[in-house]
Amino acid sequence: MGIFERVHVRIYDDDNCEAYWHLAWDRWTAAYPATRFYVGMTASEMTHRWVHPKNVYYDIAPSVQKADNYGGFMIWDRYADKLSNYISMVKYYA
């Protein structure tokens, strides 16, 4: 077992996160091979520009699933999810 059993990485809908999260994901998953990594995305409709279901399907899911220690997706803010129904749009990609 590594330092952490699970790490939930929250991806934000901003330009810095959009540009560099792939590099950070690859670095972290390689550095801690015994740790399970989960991608956390907000369910808020206000931030669906980059974490739009199409981007999850075409970019985020294929990128993170390459790591042997990929654990899955984590959707945060259940209240916003109930309003937007975001999880129903992305659950099959995980």
Describe what you observe in this structure:
The chain is α/β, with parallel strands linked by helices. It is built from four helices and three strands; from the N terminus they run E-H-E-H-E-H-H. The protein has a three-stranded parallel sheet with strand order 1-2-3. Strand 2 (36-42), helix 2 (53-64) and strand 3 form a beta-alpha-beta unit. The protein is globular and about 35 Å long. The protein has one domain (6-90). The model has no long low-confidence stretch (mean pLDDT 83).
Q: How many individual domains?
A: 1
Strand tally: 3
- The helix content is 40-55%
| Helix segment tally | 4
| First-residue to last-residue Cα separation | 24 Å
Radius of gyration: 13 Å
The succession of helices and strands, N to C, reads: EHEHEHH
What are the low-pLDDT stretches, counting only 5+ consecutive residues below 50?
none
Strand arrangement within the widest β-sheet reads 1-2-3
The largest sheet, given as strand count, sense and whether it forms a barrel, is:
3 strands, parallel
Beta fraction: 15-25%
* SSE-based structural type: alpha/beta
How would the global form be characterised?
globular
Mean pLDDT over the residues: 83
Oligomer: single chain
